[in-house]
Amino acid sequence: MIKKAIAIMTSGGDSPGMNAAARAVVRTALYEGVQVYGIKDGYDGMLKDDIIELTSRSVSDIIQRGGTFLGTARCPEFKTPEGRRKGYENLKKRGVEGLVIIGGDGSLTGGSLLSKETGIPIVGLPGTIDNDVWGTDYTIGCDTAANTIVDALNKLRDTASAHRRIMIVEVMGHKSGWLAMESGIAGGAEYVLVPEVKYDLDQMCEDIKAQYAAGKRYSIIVIAEGAGDGMGLGKIVEEKTGIDTRVSVLGHIQRGGSPTVEDRMKASMLGEKAALALISGASDVVFGFEQGKVVSINLFDSVNNKKTLDPELVRLARVLA
Ligand SMILES: Nc1ncnc2c1ncn2[C@@H]1O[C@H](COP(=O)(O)OP(=O)(O)OP(=O)(O)O)[C@@H](O)[C@H]1O
Ligand SMILES: O=P(O)(O)OC[C@H]1O[C@](O)(CO)[C@@H](O)[C@@H]1O
Ligand SMILES: [Mg+2]
């Protein structure tokens, strides 16, 4: 049971909805009479002792904003036991009794080590556009990022069709193809290339040529960054097909923007759960969603397993192409 204070942080790549989740954690804890500290810039701020007390007003006017009002970072020093001990000491001296971490697989891995080494209770929330946290089919921010990509695909399709071009769109996802697959299917892409699935470039180019010969006016290829370089692919595809090809690398536009209703709602629900669970004595859990329902996942199971891309989505993308 937590009597006095918890802390909250965001870590890894920012994702739209992190603010909504943090707001829910802060307001729930305060409602329960528990003090809340905000750690700035992820593990970096924990090590540098950049920690502030939060009030209900600290989280006003943020539910509609992308990014994270706490700031985030990637912190190599936290990967060492000494770094984690230093961070823990900064929490301990303030009387922090438990920690909510909002971040991706890496951030939650850091949290699991901190828990194991220091015993501090930790509750994680999956915050990443990559949707690659094991045990939950939802991560905060992926829906907003996918909507941003679909908006781009709609626009690119207009111009591709006008010029009878092939349009290659490189999206984020270094190790995971979830974001590419979801946005590719929802955006009606002809091909979705992801790091998890091998693709036959020659066959793809032959198919596109045949489709154009049969009258097709455009072809959209979504490629996750981890499946190859969009620019390089564009050159090869143009060479092999002889069809005018253009490439758009969407980049960090995918990480920003006002969160969708889905991300605001689910982040708010998860934030409340996280605060209540931590305060009532839970530790080493991650809250997520499975089939529309909130679920709690063991933190160590979550970080020790790799979420695999749903083969049904891979199949669907092929069928609908
Ligand atoms: N194996 C690890 N041990 C300790 N800390 C880690 C580990 N992996 C990651 N972290 C910590 O978490 C931070 C964020 O991790 P990472 O860069 O993998 O992002 P993430 O949380 O997976 O988010 P995203 O992939 O969405 O950007 C790292 O900079 C580091 O401080
Ligand atoms: O620009 P950064 O912060 O290094 O992050 C890029 C990476 O972060 C992610 O967007 C996840 O947040 C990955 O898909 C991408 O590879
Ligand atoms: Mg990650």
TrEMBL record:
**What is the annotated localization of this protein?**
Cytoplasm
- Which residues act catalytically here? D130 (proton acceptor)
Residue positions binding ADP: R23, A24, V25, V26, R27, R157, G188, A189, E190, K216, R217, Y218
Q: Where does Mg(2+) bind?
A: D105
Q: Which PROSITE patterns match?
A: PHOSPHOFRUCTOKINASE
Gene Ontology cellular-component annotations: 6-phosphofructokinase complex
Q: Which domain of life is it from?
A: Bacteria
Give the family per the record: Belongs to the phosphofructokinase type A (PFKA) family. ATP-dependent PFK group I subfamily. Prokaryotic clade 'B1' sub-subfamily.
List the protein's name.
ATP-dependent 6-phosphofructokinase
Q: Which organism is it from?
A: Selenomonas bovis
> Quick one: which gene encodes this?
pfkA
